[in-house]
Amino acid sequence: MKRVIIIIVLLVLMIITSCKNKIQTTITTSSNVETSTTESIKEHLFASVSVINTTLKAYEMVEMRLNEKMDIKSIVNPYDYDELNIFGKFTSPTGREIMLPAFWYKEYEIILDETWQGSGSNVPLNEPKGLETVLLKDNEYYMFRFLPTEKGNWIYEVEVKYQGEVIQTLSGNIEIQDNEAVYKGFIQVEPLHKRNFIFEDGSMYIPIGQNTSWHVNRARKTYDYDVWFQNMHEIGANVGRIWLSQRCFSLHYGEKFNDFSSRQNEVARLDRVISLAEKYDIYLFLTLINHGQFSQYVNPDWHNNPWNVINGGILNKPREFFYSEDAKRIYKSQLLYLIGRYSYSTHIFAWELWNEVDWTDSNPLDVYQWHKEMSQFIKEHDPYHHLVTTSYKGETGMAYGLSTIDFVNPHSYDYANKNMNNQLVNRINAIWNIYQKPVIFSELGINAESGGRTYEMDPTGITIHQGLWASIMGGGAGGAMNWWWDSWVHPHNLYYRFEGAAMYSKLMDLRGSTYIQLSSLKDITISNNQISILGYRIDNRLYIYLYDKNWTYFYQNIKPKEEVIVTIPFVNGEFKVTIIDTKTGEIIDTASIVINDEKFTFQLPTFHEDIAIIVD
Q1: Helix, coil or strand: residue 453
Q2: Which of 109, 220, 299, 364 shows the smallest number of beta carbons within 10 Å?
């Protein structure tokens, strides 16, 4: 019996020893793999840097690729900048330094199959027709995109960090040729009065345009923008607004919230849209997140959001996105990716952090702190200093008070049965008085339900006209931007409504030592009490907009105004008077006058709803 017990004990000990050996073997193997991976990643990852462009000119995007020595994507997530962080420093001939993050790029080709006869093929004549397809290729690699702003010899230095440790540096130089093209630069806030925007060269930028947030045709997709941008360009519009939404363009709405591999087709499409904007001279709000992605109640899509734990994410509730340290750290990688891929473009008007952030499931203080952190992060990493903004569902919001938010971007659909010319100006100036920053309504309308309902209320787009003129002549930084571009403006060909304001705004120069709104001057007289005035006195220039107080989209029976005389306090001297048609922007008439009593007094030609004048 003792012998049996001893045999059993020996067998048990043998089994335990065998299990320990297996466990030790497994652990040793895992450790070896981890050590091997770490050692291989710390070796030099890249053989060289090569330029993709065939010609290198100042003011034109330069693309440079890093030629890898191993399959990097099999070792790291190239969209995680905490793991592998690659920055390039580009030094100009005069010593200006541009620091840019590299980004992971997959080669592609976008084609339009014009033989397509399925859904989305029924489009108007003379518009692109077909099925858009993004053909992703096998080649993928790290890339830099930068905009050289000087001719001559540029020096580049590339620093590769793995988990915070520098593991490789590369350097070289490229020769940039001169370019005779006019370069205005990136958009900035006018520094003296902080009411308007200017380009780097000091010239005015007055945004006139509309929302163009996503493509709507399921077949031709981004070829929608060929149509919209061309129509906008032809009448002088110069601003649009693009959402990185679940519908299209969002980086994190793929298989994984922190790996954009499955969204390379969408960033390829975004590349194309930005190229079209550059072609048609449209400057874009790039709206980085829309509210529905992180909402369970308003346009809710949280159930589909890859950040949601039920979809493999790390967040149990939408509001955690604003205060989770892991979420903020991961989202910063997305910001670096966007800066690396798109900051070269002068036609990015602004990074708009959110669309209507207060519709999300969130706490206002968390939202404020998130904006403070993310806007500061962009300011620190965007070498071209694009403007940064955000938006709320109304006219005000805590984040607008941040020094790193450059302008106020209100939204309102409360103008049904109201006179925009009379009331919008008051709101613009009230908002400016709060924040002391440029104000541009990036969404303004009379109906938030549908383009069809808006068309029923305003079939000829009078509210577009009034929103534009009231904004640019009443203290706004640009024309108010309508919604329903896809179901109101385009199908009913209302583009003509932008033309007058677009043409007039190109003649405006609001830079000067003085900035006085005509609506604030008490000594103005108008011989017809049905007429109100908006506009500016800027040094020795006048920009004047006169309109019938009663004219609205619901009251259009406006009688002609004859022999109206206007008197405005001004300076003495010789001046040219230019009278402009507000609908077309065409010059109606010009005249020369001499002022010697410090008053501009002028009899207007006959007009109906409104008229515009420049005195310079």
Answers
A1: helix
A2: 109
